[in-house]
């Protein structure tokens, strides 16, 4: 079946995003150019500007689409957990976040975007907007968990979501730390503390 115009445009957009992602990892944001992105994706610069207003628009899209994909996956994982087993649900959630935090490509992408935002005031505002959207997605995920398990968190779901996102990003950027508990246990511990669930035996071992 022939591709529709919308399908073709989606493919073009996805190829440009993939090429930009690779360029960021291999060269960094400063060295990334629209010309090189288009060449790697096999499209013209006209195709680029049909999808993105600027390089900064593309960078924000990379951040938001990556987080959106992950939150969608997390929701699917949580949906398939046992109905009233909060511990199993938290373990599944934390295991996925910890796995992603340990991936070098994601940590490099996070660092590059953060550095670019520090150096470029114009992008900094777009970056803040992009992160705000990420906070909302994490906050909505926490709100769903709060409602599903009738939790009484120490902070509102949005604030807990912001804290969870910040911890997750911090774990991705800093890498392994000697003497620290595994990433998944740290993420579970944070959520348990925010949800007023107390400490597990594993967390107490690190106290």
From TrEMBL:
Keywords: DNA-binding, Repressor, Transcription, Transcription regulation
Keyword Transcription among record annotations: yes
PROSITE patterns: HTH_TETR_2
The keyword Transmembrane belongs to this UniProt entry's keyword annotation: no
DNA-binding region: 33-52
Superkingdom to which the source organism belongs: Bacteria
GO molecular function: DNA-binding transcription factor activity; transcription cis-regulatory region binding
All residue ranges annotated as the HTH tetR-type domain in the record: 10-70
SUPFAM superfamilies found in the cross-reference section: Homeodomain-like (SSF46689), Tetracyclin repressor-like, C-terminal domain (SSF48498)
Species name: Sphingobium yanoikuyae
Pfam families: TetR_C_6, TetR_N
Name under which the protein is recorded: TetR/AcrR family transcriptional regulator
């Amino acid at each position: 079946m022939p591709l529709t115009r919308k399908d073709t445009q989606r493919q073009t957009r996805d190829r440009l995003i993939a090429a930009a992602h690779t360029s960021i990892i291999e060269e960094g944001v400063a060295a990334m150019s629209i010309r090189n992105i288009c060449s790697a994706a096999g499209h013209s610069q006209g195709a680029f500007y049909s999808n993105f207003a600027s390089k900064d628009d593309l960078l924000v899209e990379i951040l938001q689409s990556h987080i959106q994909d992950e939150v969608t996956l997390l929701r699917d994982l949580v949906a398939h957990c046992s109905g009233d087993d909060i511990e199993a649900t938290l373990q599944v959630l934390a295991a996925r976040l910890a796995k992603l935090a340990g991936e070098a490509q994601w940590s490099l992408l996070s660092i590059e975007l953060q550095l670019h935002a520090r150096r470029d005031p114009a992008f900094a505002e777009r970056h803040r907007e992009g992160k705000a959207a990420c906070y909302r997605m994490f906050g909505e995920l926490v709100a769903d968990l709060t409602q599903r398990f009738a939790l009484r968190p120490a902070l509102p779901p949005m604030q807990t979501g912001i804290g969870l996102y910040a911890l997750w990003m911090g774990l991705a950027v800093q890498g392994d730390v000697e003497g620290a508990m595994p990433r998944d246990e740290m993420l579970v511990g944070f959520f348990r503390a925010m949800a007023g669930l107390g400490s597990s035996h594993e967390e107490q071992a690190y106290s």
